[in-house]
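As a next step, the fold was encoded as tokens, giving this record:
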Amino acid sequence: MTAKKLLLLGEIGVGKTSLVRRMVHDELPTDYRATMGVDLYRYEMAGVGEGGGRTLELVVWDLDGNYGLSIFRHVYSKGASGALIVGDIMRHSTLEHMVRLADGFTEAMPSRQFSFVVNKVDLVGEPDGSLLPDRLRNARHPLIWTSALKAQNVHSAFKQVADAIARREG
């Protein structure tokens, strides 16, 4: 089985830890604790790649949201195969920051795979693209609406980027 490093990027409080804990342990943290530095999670993603015949071990690096764009100068980001760039639907500034993180990720790691994840959609009912900044709405990268609370599209977000990594890296 092949291990691939996956970064979770986004501002503090957007739900990165909630998403990965929902994915890995099918649980939601009941107490809020901001990530300090990095927390690591491992998850075996089966049915990946063309034909769904591969299994990838995702080594998920849940990164402290306080790093901002400086994360790309930090050792934590080195060797990443992909990223989920997460924002909070209720905090417009985090959605704007997603675009800046995507630009930084693309510059630091050209041709690596990433997806945009707009989290906490359970708070707004039916997701509406008009809530997104233009650059995010018109981006050429996948955009996935999630709710870690309701486990909505969490698996799909991780699966989508795992499939893209598998296609890219063979």
User: Anything to note?
Assistant: Residues 2-169 form a domain with the Rossmann fold fold (CATH 3.40.50.300).
